[in-house]
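From the methods appendix. Each design record in this collection lists the tokenized structure first, followed by the designed amino acid sequence. Records were kept in a plain field format so they could be parsed without special tools. The example shown here is representative of the layout used throughout.

RECORD:
FOLD TOKENS (475 positions):
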């Protein structure tokens, strides 16, 4: 752990398993409530000097982090793949994403503008200034361990906040490597602190502490709700990116080759372990057979293997529980009448024997009674559902609970406008499987989250607006 600029060790160890081989990849020191409290105290002590530092100096330090991320990209990518299994090409893209966030918010640090407001009295001047909220408790996920840390820490540090970070138990080494970079650039002690401790211990400490003024969390909706409720006791800010259940819609006028190719990117990239991954594929009934055939042919060519191999497209799932959930969803769908067009099995032979591998899968004739229609699968499974009209689609595609990402394929501009306005999702890609860019706001609706990350809006949740009225003597 990294607290107040010092590396902290304990007698308790956390073992990190490589999901490709089943072997222990790392052992890291693990703490408890005492270490969490120490980290919060360190962040409190560092807050004043860090907030007072000119924005240009904070920006310069973040740009130094950018330089180190560029220099260390390949090594960091290998750490990510070793810990959570995603293909190395996806891990490299993740480090690039972290670079983008640190660069963007380094630039935004100098654009925390206030405003002057016309007053109703001639001897007064009214202004609004924006100041950092204080100490931030950041809880990051295992599927993007470095990029999600960047998406939270970059705006927090740019705004002048200090932070305590709790990484996922599956990927603590990625967080440790990021702390090493902060140490190398000379980030002042206590500005960023890392604690590796049980989730319930850190969550309770963050919720109970009046010194932690904001919690930022990426993870499951269930845990997010608990943090949201607990944060009410001290009325602290929260921003959350929670679960997703993204629909991928293919209308009859779509470019089917493009749609099938792009579905590979939204469904099988990172082995399907993304909150923005497609979970339901809606295809117009007039083209469902031809589209399914194209998709199956493409999926058959997808290389499954150890993420360290450059040509691997689908790596192992992060752990055995994730593998079992995917298998359970497919078995339930098949039992209720879905057709397994390709895949549909746990891979157990040869190089797959000791890892958490599931074959890339396409299902057809999926119905709303099936588990995967209602729950987030988080794996390489594409369930196809046919629809007959735009009106029917809209009535089915909007989820009662989820509202993170969605994708629509059509060549009709009028339909594009109608559908994108009716979709109850925070992000919509029209003929675009990757609409997520640092300059755009990332976030969901409904139970998929609160607040936005990235873009010029991403720094707002780390700033307080303060009204100042100045009365002065005239003449």
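DESIGN:
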């Amino acid at each position: 752990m990294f607290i107040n600029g010092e590396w902290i060790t304990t007698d308790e160890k956390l073992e990190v398993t490589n999901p490709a081989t089943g072997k222990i990849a790392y052992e890291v020191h693990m703490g408890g409530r005492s270490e969490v409290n120490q980290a919060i105290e360190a962040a409190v002590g560092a807050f004043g000097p860090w907030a007072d530092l000119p924005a240009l100096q904070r920006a310069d330090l973040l740009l130094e982090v950018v330089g180190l991320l560029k220099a260390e990209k390949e090594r960091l990518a290998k750490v990510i793949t070793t810990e959570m299994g995603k293909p190395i090409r996806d891990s490299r893209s993740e480090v690039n994403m972290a670079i983008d966030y640190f660069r963007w918010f380094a630039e935004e640090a100098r654009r925390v503008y206030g405003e002057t407001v016309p007053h109703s009295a001639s001897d007064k001047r009214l202004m609004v200034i924006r100041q950092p909220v204080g100490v931030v408790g950041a809880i990051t996920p295992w599927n993007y361990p470095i990029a999600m840390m960047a998406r939270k820490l970059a705006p927090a540090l740019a705004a002048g906040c200090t932070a305590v970070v709790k990484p996922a138990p599956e990927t603590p080494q990625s967080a440790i490597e990021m702390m090493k970079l902060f140490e190398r650039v000379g980030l002042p002690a206590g500005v960023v602190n890392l604690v590796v401790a049980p989730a319930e211990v850190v969550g309770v400490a963050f919720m109970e502490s009046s010194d932690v003024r904001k919690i930022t969390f990426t993870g499951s909706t269930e845990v997010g709700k608990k943090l949201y409720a607990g944060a009410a006791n001290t009325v602290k800010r929260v921003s959350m990116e929670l679960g997703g259940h993204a629909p991928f819609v293919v209308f009859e006028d779509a470019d089917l080759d493009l749609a099938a190719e792009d579905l590979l990117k939204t469904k099988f990239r990172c082995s399907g372990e993304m909150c923005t991954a497609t979970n339901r594929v809606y295809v117009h009934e007039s083209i469902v057979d031809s589209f399914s055939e194209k998709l199956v042919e493409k999926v058959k060519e997808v290389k499954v293997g150890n993420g360290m191999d450059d040509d691997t497209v689908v790596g192992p799932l992060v752990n055995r529980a994730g593998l079992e959930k995917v298998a359970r969803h497919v078995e339930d769908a098949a039992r209720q009448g879905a057709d397994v067009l390709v895949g549909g099995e746990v891979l157990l032979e040869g190089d797959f024997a000791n890892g958490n591998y599931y074959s890339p899968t396409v299902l057809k004739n999926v119905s709303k009674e099936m588990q995967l229609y209602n729950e987030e699968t988080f794996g390489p499974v594409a369930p196809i559902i046919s629809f007959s009209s735009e009106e029917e689609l809209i009535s089915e595609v909007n989820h009662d609970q989820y509202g993170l990402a969605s994708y629509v394929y059509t060549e009709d501009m009028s339909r594009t406008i109608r559908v994108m306005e009716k979709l109850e999702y925070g992000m919509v890609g029209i003929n675009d499987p990757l609409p997520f860019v640092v300059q755009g706001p990332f976030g969901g609706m409904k139970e998929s989250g609160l607040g936005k990350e990235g873009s010029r809006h991403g720094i707002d949740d780390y700033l307080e607006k303060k009204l100042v009225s100045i009365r002065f003597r005239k003449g």
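APPENDIX NOTE: The chain has a mean pLDDT of 97.
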